[in-house]
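Quick one, T. Sequence first:
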Amino acid sequence: MALFTDIDAQVAVLRDLFGGDVAVDELASRMSSFSGEKLISAVAAAAALVRSAERIGIVGAGIVAARSRREAGQDGLAQGRGHRSAAALIQEITGSSHADAQRQVRLGQSILDSEASAGGSNPEPVSDADAGDGDDGGTHSGTDAGADSDAGEDHSADSASGPDAGAGPSGVPRAPWHAPLSAALLQGRISPAQHDAIQRGLGHPIDDADDTHAAWSAAAEHLIADAASRTVEELRVQARAIRDQLDPDGAERRFTERYERRSFRTWTDADGIEHGRIEFEDDGAAWIRAIRDAALRPRRGGPRFVDSAENRQAADLTADTRTNDQLSYDLLIDLLRAGALADATTVFGTRQAGVRIVQVIDDTGAGVSARTEDYGHPIPGAAVDQRICDTGAVRVTVDACGNPLDVGREHRLFTPRQRVALAIRDGGCRWAGCDRPASYCEAHHIDEWARDGGRTDIDRGILLCRHHHMQLHHGGWRITRDGREDFHLHPPGGRPTIPLRPRAALTAAWAGIDPPPKRFRPAA
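Structure tokens:
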């Protein structure tokens, strides 16, 4: 659909929902009278309208950057208006944060590079230093700082411009690897935030070979297809996990860099209050998450308990007047006091914390990739070998799609080993848009045990967090699966079914055993 045709269509939908024009000061009262379905339709149409209009601003930001090159001096578009960079000019025009303005410039450059490779206009690309202010290196403010950066990583390659554009080693013109992202953004299939999460998460290809660029492009396509059912935060994690599968040497380097940055410091402010700051390396961060999740699981939507004593403890924790942050603090202090002799039932409740690592091994016994079971953070091979020496390993055999073997109908409940297999295959709650980790999930039989004669087989089970498991059973939802194809979620009321796609990083892990990056090839 043409851009302004799309915009007109969304405006027409909104006019129809509101019954014509509406005064701004009547907006809240008018929308408060909408039914649930009408309200959702209005929000969806407004989001689609914003996304359509946002494309104009993004492309414009890229062109502003191209006309604000440093070598242009005061004749540059931004410099001529008193700004040091294109991002600063965009920030003034839009009233957005510096991080958002930089993202618009980045995405605009990406689109221009892609169009130039396809034979369109070819404005000269801009370096990261030109796009940013130069004084802060593109530092993000607010929550973006933690979400968009990997500690110790070089983000100089995050710009769309780079060695991937132009001709390949053979001299034949080649589209940049991120061209699928630009196309998906212009077509409205992904949002700017999703585009940025995927592109920055994947980083740049490790070399200039055509096969390498094809692998990165295929990874981008894979993540684009997954974007509709993932949050931006989870999409960013998936992109980084796939990057580490494609670039294991770089994964080892980034792991080591994060380890070298580990630190803990305290300071006292003017009011005499002691503060602390910790920068975690990967293993320590995984342990802290596991400890916190084990202790606060009932407060954070963890699985229901069968044992009466567990139920009482969960109820007591839920009724506790302390905030989650206060409970986390008290837990940490208890751990420090108890040290290595901590009593598990006193500190953790009925489930002791632990970090489970999932490693993909090929037929030769060589490790292909590894990640934490909860949250899916990639782990380099050396760290996995160290963990195996300390705790041992459990082998689970799967097919090329990650499906473990069946175990029959002998038990009503899934066994602990089956739960391990479900966690390996699903990676957490499979409900569309949910990012709850595997340890927060319950195993659901898609075929009812009594009504359908359902088997307690891995193929007929799926992980759901407590909230979505209860919603499915009590809200008229159901899940089906044809053989070993994708699971499908059926909403009540005959609404369209929703495919429950596996996480992109997991399907990439099962996508073959050739050495990276050839392992992740585009579909024929």
